[in-house]
Design goal:
The protein is built from four helices and six strands. It is α+β, with helices and mostly antiparallel strands and 155 residues long. It has one domain: 3-Layer(aba) Sandwich (Trna Endonuclease, Chain: A, domain 1).
C-alpha cells in the first residue's frame, strides 16, 4: 500500500476529509482563474492527449499559461513528470508558449496547501529554486501570481 493509500484509509477510519486528488486540484485552479475578472481556464489533458499539460489558464493581466499539475506528499516530495510530459513542455517552451509545472502539497489535514511553481522541465523534487505559495482553506488561490512565475520565464 502506498503512502497516499495509507493516508486515505486512515482519514476514512477517523472520519476526516479525504486527501484531494490531482484532478481535484486541477478543478480548484480552473475555478480560481474563472473568479478573476475576465479569467478563463479549462482542463486540456485527457486519455487521448498523452503528455499535454493539464490546464490552460488565462487572465487579462497575465495572458495564457499551460500548467502541468502534480501532487506531492511525504518527505521525498518527488515530482514525477513522464518523459513525454517533459518532452512536450520543452517543445512548448521552445515555441514561445508559457508552460510550467505546479506542484501542490496538502498540509494540516488539508486545511492548507503549499504550491510550488517552476518552468524547469528537469525538476525531480521540490526545491528552494521553485516559487512557493501558501493557500489556506477559505482564502483564494494566488492564481495570477502563480501564473506570472510561468509567464516571466516564457519571455
Amino acid at each position: 500500500m502506498t503512502l497516499r493509500e495509507e493516508m486515505i484509509e486512515e482519514l476514512k477510519r477517523e472520519g476526516k476529509p479525504k486527501m484531494p486528488t490531482e484532478l481535484d486540484m486541477q478543478e480548484k485552479l480552473v475555478d480560481a482563474v474563472k473568479k478573476v475578472e475576465g479569467g478563463y481556464g479549462f482542463k486540456l489533458s485527457n486519455k487521448f492527449l498523452a503528455g499535454i499539460p493539464d490546464l490552460f489558464l488565462s487572465t487579462p493581466s497575465v495572458g495564457p499559461v499551460l500548467l502541468e499539475v502534480k501532487m506531492v506528499e511525504g518527505p521525498e516530495q518527488l515530482v514525477l513528470l513522464t518523459p513525454l510530459q517533459r518532452h512536450v513542455i520543452i517543445r512548448l517552451k521552445a515555441a514561445g508558449t508559457a508552460a510550467g509545472i505546479i506542484v501542490i502539497r496538502p498540509e494540516e489535514e488539508f486545511r492548507r496547501y503549499t504550491a510550488y511553481v517552476t518552468t524547469d522541465h528537469d525538476v525531480v523534487r521540490v526545491n528552494k529554486d521553485m516559487a512557493k505559495f501558501v493557500k489556506v482553506v477559505g482564502e483564494p488561490w494566488p492564481i495570477e501570481y502563480m501564473m506570472m512565475v510561468v509567464r516571466q520565464h516564457a519571455t
